[in-house]
Amino acid sequence: MSDRHITRRVRGVDTSDGAGVRLKRVIGQPELDMLDPFLLLDEFRSDQAGDYIAGFPEHPHRGFETVTYMLAGHMQHQDNHGNHGDLGPGSVQWMTAGRGILHSEMPQQENGLMWGFQLWVNLPAKDKMTAPRYQDIAPQRIPVVHPAAGVEVKLIAGELAGATGPVEGIVTAPLYLDIGLQPGAALTLDLPDGHHGFAYVFEGESVLVGGEKLARGQLGVLSERGRLQLAGGEQPVRLLVVAGRPLEEPVTRYGPFVMNTPAEIHDAIADFRAGKF
Ligand code: MN
After folding, report:
1. Distance between Cα 4 and ligand 1 center (Å)
2. Bridge partner residues of 118 (DSSP)
3. Helix (H) or strand (E) holding 103
4. Distance 266 CA to ligand 1 centre (A)
5. What angle do CA 23, 46, 62 make, to 5 degrees?
6. How far, in Å, from the CA of 15 to the mean position of ligand 1?
7. Which of 244, 262, 277 lies closest to 123 in space, CA to CA?
8. Helix (H) or strand (E) holding 160
């Protein structure tokens, strides 16, 4: 079987969200509207407080999952069901918004580096109105595996080298890896056939993905079948590799609501205004 290769490359576009947090939107922008089941990928990275201090005050979500992975800095999460959690360096929050929550994500620092990712993962029609659920994962619960010389992988979701990531029970059966490769190191990954996936380089210079160079700040969309071959460049490099089962359902999105039909979006807005979240 042939290996996976890069079918498209995109760079994030500068934008802001929340109350004015500056970020790069990599998925969910004109060049890459979505990559079923992934609806959005943001990278936020700044050591200028003005870029993040306003945070993400209370806002709703319905119909999908938000996944926050912090590399540096602290955010606090709070919602209208009484849940709250501290998102510190290396931690992950996998939030299944389901039928609806109102939450805020606010910085807990006034200076220093704030760096991380938010990924949106769609839910199938049958699960869009499920009860909200959180998986708050401290960094020490994330296995660090060394499947080959010079390779270090933080296994957030999925299975690798006999280890299993801590995120459980996600309908799209995701793989979410933070991979560090030393110069000259190589790694072959078995991704489930048919899973859609991407690689996004966030530290270092470049990595070879299926033999082709992918530079820092580039996202490579992967072809759908076969193994994924990665090889380090001349500098240590770090990248995300994320894959999930596509839903192949109609998508209607309106800001923080992602449903299957316009009528369901109207219901989401009406329910939100009626205080039903
Ligand atoms: Mn949110």
Report:
1. 32
2. 42, 68
3. strand 101-107
4. 20
5. 35
6. 16
7. 244
8. strand 159-160
Fold of 6-273: Jelly Rolls (2.60.120)
> Tens-of-pLDDT digits for all 277 residues of the chain?
579 999 999 999 999 999 999 999 999 999 999 999 999 999 999 999 999 999 999 999 999 999 999 999 999 999 998 899 999 999 999 999 999 999 999 999 999 999 999 999 999 999 999 999 999 999 999 999 999 999 999 999 999 999 999 999 999 999 999 999 999 999 999 999 999 999 999 999 999 999 999 999 999 999 999 999 999 989 999 999 999 999 999 999 999 999 999 999 999 999 999 999 9
| CA neighbor of 52 nearest in space, from 89, 72, 76, 23 | 23
Peptide bond preceding 37 in cis form (omega within 30 of 0): yes
Distance 215 CA to ligand 1 centre (A): 29
- Kindly give the distance from the C-alpha atom of residue 161 to the centroid of ligand 1, in angstroms, as a whole number: 33
Which pair of structure tokens corresponds to residue 42? 């943001």
Ligand 1 center from residue 277 Cα (angstroms):
14
CA of 217 relative to ligand 1 center, distance in Å? 23
Where exactly are the structural domains of the chain? 6-273
How far does residue 104's CA lie from ligand 1's centre (Å)?
6
Q: State in Å: Cα 57 to ligand 1 middle.
A: 9
Identify the helix (H) or strand (E) that includes residue 263. helix 262-273
Distance 162 CA to ligand 1 centre (A): 33
Distance (angstroms) between ligand 1 centre and the Cα of 66 equals 7
